[in-house]
Design goal:
By secondary structure, this protein is mainly alpha-helical. It has 15 helices and no strands. The protein folds into two domains: about 80 residues; about 240 residues, MetI-like fold (Orthogonal Bundle), CATH 1.10.3720. The longest helix has about 40 residues. InterPro entries: BPD_transp_1_N (IPR045621), MetI-like (IPR000515), MetI-like_sf (IPR035906). It comes from Microvirga lotononidis.
Amino acid sequence: MNGGGGHVGALRSFLKKVVQFVIVLATTLLGLVAVTFFIGRVVPIDPVIAIVGDRAPAHVYERTRQELGLDRPLIEQFVIYVKKAATGDFGNSVLTTNPVMTDIINVFPATLELATLGTIIGVIVGIPLGVLAAVKRGSLLDQFVRVLGLVGYSVPIFWLGLMGLLLFYAKLGWVAGPGRIDVTYSYLYTPVTGIVLLDTAMQGQWDAFWDAVSHVLLPACLLGYFSLAYISRMTRSFMLNELAQEYVIAARVKGLSEMRVIWRHALRNAAVPLITVIALSYANLLEGSVLTETVFAWPGLGQYITNSLQNADMNAVLGGTLVIGTVFVLLNLVSDLLYRLLDPRTR
């Protein structure tokens, strides 16, 4: 009986946490929708003029305004917007005339590809640098890693992008220029996932694959640099904390090698909070690659939102912003759940 009661209690506790998670997620997303909606209503851009033009007759303007529901009370407009957004309906884009969600599905894989590669570079390079900086605290290597991170936070990303294009593309010719793939190779493969590297590799179009690699290399390394600046700094901080713990001292007293103490024991414990750091870095690259995509003419979600904003296409701007915000919120919640699963002390 006691065993059954214990299982029931554990099940109730689990269901309670699931309900709390759903409530937090729904509340956060509703707040995100509200902020996005009301910002879109207070900006000095008239979506009706963007559609009909500033020379349209008054009756055409008024009819379009009624069709868009802009003549209704603001609260009623918000309720309608929430209902439509819940089904993925953000209206039609003025710029492309397509449903906004269709456009987002077409351009988001480009942003996902770029941000994923940048995060991978940041993790592969940033974590070892952070560990070595913590182990060699106060050394030249430590100072180098700290300066590297400081520069990554301080230098504008668009300036680094322009300098990178000038040096590695225009002067040295080591990488391809702006864009995602040359027109010559764009017809050699069939888009399936929307991720060019994956599609060309799966279809065996290796010439197109290497051309895509040449295009993505510079912007991915640029985003990877900003990612490793954050990851290396946080890794150093976590490792300094772990190396001061008693279990590290005990492991050294037992005669374990320094490599084993650092990489198998200290880093393993530091890896738990690092998951949250990596998830936040990934989310930041997904939402913060607007300038990178603009500099490199990368046809991703960031450039889509920028072009839409320049053309007063508020449906596209609000839809893209909401999608990015939703991804950011979901990654934060997932990282929090992983943190709780991997570290029993937080449960």
